[in-house]
Write a structure and sequence with these properties.
By secondary structure, the chain is of the alpha/beta class.
């Protein structure tokens, strides 16, 4: 079975190939790319990364077209999580925590998964909100951060444009709106040390799901 995976900043193609060898890895998907993959003979499509602002995003209609053609479509991590939460009732398969967050209404905006990345290497150069949420969730469980502090940091993160989001800028803004300088310095170190890359984890989950489906 031919497997096509749209992947970019969430995970490198080299790392992905070590998990799911033999798949065809393409750049983050934009409008029309799913239809092209379907017409190229894909039997399964993994939608992980997609474009949001550079050009038109993947449409619902083209994913439904692929499903109607009998193609298995699995989504998670980024654009794939968003579209899967909207189209799982029509047969798209969603996996991962970010998909579940979209599905249960914890998050609802494209901005949650948006980030800036190097157009040549596809390496991320900003931090998406979903990673910040996951990191704060982990710190809260360990009682390294209070609920109030977590809310302040998340509010600060939302106020920073997605292209500029990093922990340094976020904490600097959080200090201004109530975190305090001394506490901010402590939490900045903890967030960097305990950083959770949820988009990467969910991208791996998509690849493992495709691997499972292809082996049955």
């Amino acid at each position: 079975m031919k497997v096509v995976v749209f992947l970019g900043p969430s995970l490198s193609h080299q790392e992905a190939n070590a998990i799911l060898g033999g798949a065809e890895y393409r750049l983050p998907a934009g409008r029309g790319d799913i239809v092209r993959a379907a017409n190229d003979g894909a039997g399964a499509i993994g939608l992980i990364d997609g474009v949001f602002y550079q050009r038109a995003a993947v449409s619902h209609r083209e994913i439904l077209y692929a499903i109607k053609e009998g193609i298995t479509v699995v989504g998670g991590s980024s654009m794939g999580a968003l579209r899967a939460s909207e189209l799982d009732v029509y047969g798209m398969i969603g996996v991962g925590k970010i998909y579940k967050w979209y599905k249960d209404g914890t998050i609802n905006s494209d901005d949650e998964v948006a980030l800036a990345f190097n157009p040549e290497t596809l390496a991320p150069i900003s931090e998406p909100l979903v990673n910040i949420r996951a990191t704060l969730e982990g710190l809260l469980k360990r009682k390294y951060v209070s609920e109030e502090e977590g809310e302040i940091i998340l509010r600060a993160a939302k106020a920073v444009p997605f292209q500029l989001r990093n922990y340094q800028r976020i904490v600097q803004r959080a200090m201004i709106i109530g975190l305090g300088k001394a506490r901010g310095r402590i939490l900045l170190d903890r967030m960097k040390e305990k950083r959770v890359d949820q988009k990467r984890l969910d991208a791996v989950a998509v690849l493992n799901k495709l691997k499972e489906l292809c082996s049955t």
